[in-house]
Amino acid sequence: MKKRKVLLIVLLIVASFPLFAQIVRPVSWTVSQKAVGNGEIELGLKASIQPGWHLYSTKLPEGGPVKTTFTFTPDSGRYKVIGEVSSVTKPTREHDQIFNMDLEFYSNEAIFSQRIKVLTYQPFELKGTIEYQTCNNETCTLDEHDFSFKIDGSGEVSANVKMAGLPKDQDNQHHGLWWFLVFSFVAGLAAILTPCVFPMIPMTVSFFMNRNKSKLQARIQALVYGGSIILIYTLIGTLVALTLGADFANWISTHWLPNILFFIVFVVFAFSFFGAFEIVLPGSWGNRADQFADKGGIGGAFFMALTLVLVSFSCTGPIVGAILVESAGGMVIKPIVGMLGFSLAFALPFTLFALFPQWLTNLPKSGGWLNSVKVVLGFVELALGLKFLSIADQTYHWRILDREIYIAFWIVIFTMMGFYLLGKMKFAHDSETKHITVPRLMMALITFTFVVYLIPGMFGAPLKAISGYLPPMTSHDFDLHKIIRDEVKLVDHTLGAAVLSKSSSALCEKPKFSEFLELPHGLEGFFDFEQGLACARAQNKPVFIDFTGHGCVNCREMEANVWSDPRVLERLKNDFVIIALYVDDKTALPQSEWITSTYDQKVKKTIGKKFADFQISRFGVNAQPYYVLLDPDQNLLTIPTARDLNPDHFIEFLDKGLSEFKARQSTK
């Protein structure tokens, strides 16, 4: 019985062999890629043709064979096909006996190319189909082949199959992950120097130096503390990206609730450094921490790590947010690697201070030196805590902490700090000081010098060195420079000069949201993308998009140090239509302007959420500042750029986009 079954199967296979033999595919396809600059990519499609067969070209007369046709799946929001498919391989033209006419065809191999313009920096897949006919001296076949390319977040293309001749780096995902890990590690080191993170270091020292424990317990707590930072960023951060969406980083760094809480935390720690009270954990958290403290203090160390992550997120949000976009876009391994690298560097100094709090406690204590350090750090905490209150104030337009009020607070705080260093002020835990040491005198000198530097800021001086820490110049009520500039404009207008006054704006119409939003340095522009784009089309100018935010430290630095350059101002004022899109503004939109996100399918009801979604869905980025140059048809003019405090680099970016715009205009 078994022999009969085996024999039957063999007979069926032999009988069906002619059917398989009829499936003839004399052409196999491979794909390749090459970046050509300015966001354009050249796709290559190579046909390998079996001997004796030939593939017909893309241009054939009517009544002949089927020509080779390439169809790309339409996706106007992500890429644009430039021109038609071109033949790299020169076809042969001969008389075809089967169709009895002169035709063009390829033998052995044929290479075709197609240029595309990448319109987004969010990863996506480009798909298409090739329809073609091949013949030999006896028969012809019709066939089609589906192809696809994967375009990554940098706008480069990699084929969905492995190809000979590709650089190994492009075909090695692990290599890219290693570089991403290094980049994230460097970003973590840079994040330590932000105004939200650096002041947390003395808080860490204070927490661990005031615990009576053995060296073994101290080291265990320190390792738990550092490990908790890494765990929270790597695990919880990635889970947030997968569940709450990429704009969660924007919420926690700009919403009034977390920022007010962060401000209160800084004030509380400042008062603690002043000696008003000792910090204890609130409510049930404190009880839980005490329970863990009996077993080594693990709960207290974890709580400190969680506090650090939450408070510092206001400044690390843009960095972490860029990583979260990767995971929200479906890439899971890369954001985990990125968050791991970031948190390793971020946890390093805090863990070292937790391991070695004796770096402070072992220093000389004569004259209450250690308490003086804590008091000075308390002044610094109080000054930097205002940044969080300012973010909420700017985002919600409360106007309770405008720039001059903010600077006034800093002048008073650092003046009091200078008097304290000179021994003119004392706190309860300070010991008697008979004389001023040289280090205290030098610190007092630096402090009072800083106060003198701050004073012109009350009258509108840009204070470029600390511009990222201050509210924007647009919130300054008494700006002496602006008053003088407006007076000069008024005189020029009165005398008939060719300088436009405020009332004779070169804009197409009054910008939406201009009642509470304003560009720096007297520039004019729009705060709504569609309105600005319509004006760019009417004036036939390129678009300069500034993705910014009220709480964006780096945005203020760029405006104060780069935009203020006369060469930059001239180009922005004359050559571009400026569109500033605030991604953190909480102003509600009318229902007619609500949008449903194509990225996370959520309804966006505020100015900030609408344009944050636009930045993510269109460009795959949610970090600010982010500068994009488009033509009136919304095509990229050059690769977008971000924070770079070198004005020459920014001018090069603007000139490159303007040159590309003029080149496209000349070809129309």
Written overview of the protein:
This protein has helices spanning 2-21, 173-191, 200-209, 215-243, 248-254, 256-273, 283-293, 298-328, 333-355, 358-361, 369-396, 403-421, 438-454, 480-494, 529-539, 553-563, 566-575, 607-619, 647-667; strands at 27-37, 40-49, 54-56, 69-72, 79-87, 92-96, 101-107, 109-118, 124-135, 140-151, 157-159, 543-548, 577-582, 595-596, 603-604, 626-630. The strands form four sheets. Strands 3, 4, 6, 7, 9, 10 and 11 form a seven-stranded antiparallel beta sheet that branches. It has a four-stranded antiparallel beta sheet with strand order 1-2-8-5, with no helix packed on it. The chain has a three-stranded mixed beta sheet with strand order 13-12-16, sandwiched between helices. It is of the alpha+beta class and 668 residues long. Helices cover 47% and strands 16% of the residues. The N and C termini lie far apart (79 Å).
Characteristics of this structure?
disordered N terminus, alpha+beta, 668 residues, 16% strand, single chain, seven-stranded antiparallel beta sheet
The whole-angstrom Rg is 32 Å
- Class by alpha and beta content: alpha+beta
Distance between the termini: 79 Å
Number of E strands: 16
Break the fold down into its secondary structure elements and pairings:
Elements: H1 2-21, E1 27-37, E2 40-49, E3 54-56, E4 69-72, E5 79-87, E6 92-96, E7 101-107, E8 109-118, E9 124-135, E10 140-151, E11 157-159, H2 173-191, H3 200-209, H4 215-243, H5 248-254, H6 256-273, H7 283-293, H8 298-328, H9 333-355, H10 358-361, H11 369-396, H12 403-421, H13 438-454, H14 480-494, H15 529-539, E12 543-548, H16 553-563, H17 566-575, E13 577-582, E14 595-596, E15 603-604, H18 607-619, E16 626-630, H19 647-667
Parallel strand pairs: 12-13
Antiparallel strand pairs: 1-2, 2-8, 3-7, 3-9, 4-9, 5-8, 6-7, 9-10, 10-11, 12-16, 14-15
Helix pairs in contact: 2-9, 3-9, 4-8, 4-9, 5-8, 6-11, 7-8, 8-9, 11-12, 12-13, 17-19
